[in-house]
Structures are given as structure tokens and as C-alpha cells.
Amino acid sequence: MRPSKLLRSSNFRLALIYMALFGASVLLLLGFIYWSTVSYMGRQTDAIIEAEIAGLAERYRLRGLVGLTNLIAERLSRKPAGSSIYLLADRGFRPLVGNLDRWPAVPETPDGWVIFRLEEEAVDNGQVRRARARTFQLRGGFNLLVGRDMQELEAIQQLIVRTLIWGLAIMTILALAGGSMMTRSMMRRIETISATSREIMTGDLSRRIPTKGTGDDFDRLTGNLNSMLDRIETLMENVRRVSDNIAHDLRTPLARLRNRLELLRMQKAGSEQLRETVEQAVSEADGLLSTFNALLRIARIESGSGRAGFTDVNLASMMRDVVDLYEPLAEEKRQHLRMRLTGDLRACGDRDLLFQAIANVIDNAIKYTPTGGTIEVSTDTNSNGGRITVADSGPGIPVQAREKVFERFFRLDASRTTPGSGLGLSLVAAVAKLHDIKVLLKDNRPGLRVILVFTTTASSELSGSWRHKK
Fold first, then answer.
1. Would the pLDDT of 244 be above 80?
2. pLDDT tens digits for range 308-340
3. 78-87 own/partner pairs: CB under 8 Å, 24+ apart
4. Which overall architecture, per CATH, does domain 306-469 show?
5. What does pTM read for this prediction?
6. Which CATH number is associated with domain 3-155?
């Protein structure tokens, strides 16, 4: 990956932001450790100096100047290269005993502390170090200075500073390396998605984004994208199929309409044949308008806009209205239309759409059931909901075609010669999807059973009743 592309990556910038925040946190933590350690060691050093001054002052009070000088000499002899500093001077600050060759020429703090440099005469290797000491005036005019070499404390301070610098440097290097690795890995997966998207945009709708099978966020995102692509491919295939079916099914009525209008142009006004031709042309136009209106209605239903008009619907009462509407048509074909309502089946939905969907199912049953056949409409309820069943004694639908009959303009070869546009069950499927209704097609032996399963209903048991119609 080129550095310029790496720097433009949002993942890499996010890694840098995280590195900066983490670095600031580490810096604050190490700064607190540095301050705490140095403060603690400084307090410990001051406490040791105070204790030594108290001990030396007590020796001077008990044994005088000789006892004090002997004690200082004894301590220096035990640790000649130690970090303790002692100096006993007279009234004129001339050294009497100790490991300093002169009294420090630095001002004292108000509480008697002095910080001064240890010259090469006082330390080995000619190094110049700092010391912290406390001054004390003894009775008799003698001056006592007790202190400690600050080399240890300064060494620890320098060690902490070096550790801080190296820690920040190592953290920066690791963060840059880790950010680069993470960015490269994520960019490879993103590039895979982008490459697949470009192939899909060129027209290959069958392409899908590969997954690694890790179940991580990218795999879940990829799964959702692939599901979306499957849906888009299905919709595009449906659009192509619908376009083909529209061209196939509307070509013939349009040709007939044109031919009849051509005949109308050649015929004399007022003749009976003219009126018949006009009626046929109007009928063909009405059929075309009905087809397009059905398409628009299905599109509106599938958009989900119909949910705004949902109310509590008494399905049992609505079923009676639908059966009453189709009773004359069944009688005309000398069919037996029977209805059995068990329970007060209710659902939340759009009554007009539900009425239209059930009417389409019953209309299909009447259309394909032969003369003298039987059509049964029934409802039943249970604890999980309820269902509406429309069973006929017609030819039925082959198992392999039961999913396809819900597609727009799909018609079985045997029904191509019968009136209709192939949109009735498509509208039923759209209404069912809008209302979360499951539509099942079962074999009635002979005939077909269409079952509408409602998962959310309210029912109260009523006595079952049969109504027989011929």
C-alpha cells in the first residue's frame, strides 16, 4: 500500500488518534510516577538529615565538642565514599572536621536548607554533583552542616525520564506498525467489497462478496450486503420477467384493439356492426386499464404505505360479505359455495385490502372449478391466531408451480386461454406480506386449498355454522 493511500485511510487516522490518546495517558501516568517517586525520595532524604542532626546535636550536648568531632570522624571512617555529608565549622565558618573543605557559599532558605555543588575535591573522578544539606548552629558559636549527596536521586530521576522517552518512542513505533497492519488488513477487505461492487455495477448481478467465516463485524456486514444483493437480483429478475410477461400478455389485446379501431374507421356510422366493434374496443381498453391499475395497486401495497389505515377488522363478518358478493357468480356456474365460520376471527389491518385479497382467492376458485364443483370457505381460530381456508375441487396447481403463481403475470399454460391478467395471486401475496399473513397452497385431492394464516388475531368462540349455496 502506498504511503499516501495509507495516510488517507480513515482506519490509519483512527489508529493515530488512538495512539495520541494512549500516549497522553502514558505520559500522565509516568509523570505522576516521576513526581511521586522524586517527592518521596526527597522527603526520605530530608527525614534522614533531620535525624542525623538531632543525633549529632544530642552528642554535642552530652560530650561537648570532642564527642561531636569523634562521632563525625567515626561515621566518615565507616563510609568514606558514602552519600552523607558532614561539616563542623567555627564561628568564622572555618572547617574543623568533615568531608567538605569549606562552608558552602550559597544562601540558605528560611528554614535553614542549602543546595550546593560538590566540587572535585569532595568527590571522586572530578565529577560535579549537587548536595542538599541542613545547617544548624550549636551552643558556643559552632556551625554544623549535615547533608546528602543527590546523585542517587538525580540518577533515579534521569532513569525515569529515559524510561519515559523510550516508552513513548517504542509505543509510537508499535502504534504506527500496528495501525499500518490493521489498516492494510481492513483495506484489503474493503477493497474486496469495492471490487465486487464494481463488478456488480458493470452488470454481473450474480457476484457476491466473499466472507472469511470468522463471524466478525465485517462478516456480518458482508452477510447483510449479500442478502441485499440477493434481494436486488430477485427484484431485477422479477422486473425482467414482468417486462417479458407484459409484452407477451398485452401485445395480443393491443393488436385486437388496433384491428377493431381499424374496422371502426372503415365502417359506416350508425350500423349495428359499428356499435359491436366499439363495444369490443372499449372492453379491450377496460381490460388494459384494469391490468395497469392492478399493477399500480400491487406496487402501492408493496411499498408499505397502506399500514397507516390499519384498524381492527372482523374477518368473520368480512367473509360473509365476500361470499355474498360471489354467490351469484357461483350460482351462474351451478357450483356449490359453502361457508363455515368457527370463532369470531379478528385481525389488525386494512379491511379493503383484506377484502380484495380474499375476493381474489375465491374468484380464482370459482374461475377454475368446473360446473357442478364445490368451493368451501372456512375460518378457525386457536391460541396462536387463526386462518382462512378456501378449498375448491378444480384442477389444482402443480407443486413445482406453487411458488411461481404469486409472481406477476405468471399463468399456467392451461390457463392462458382463460380471461385474466395473472395478477390476482400477486395482489394476494402483496397484501399478505403487508399484514404478516402466511399464504399456503395445499393439495385438496382434487383441487386446491389456499390457507391464509394470521399470527395475530383476537377471537371469541362462537358456535360453528354451515351455509350451503348452489
1. no
2. 667 888 888 888 888 888 888 888 888 888 888
3. 81/124, 83/148, 83/149, 83/151, 83/152, 84/52, 84/146, 84/147, 84/148, 84/149, 85/118, 85/122, 85/131, 85/133, 85/145, 85/146, 85/147, 85/148, 85/149, 86/56, 86/145, 86/146, 87/144, 87/145
4. 2-Layer Sandwich (3.30)
5. 0.45
6. 3.30.450
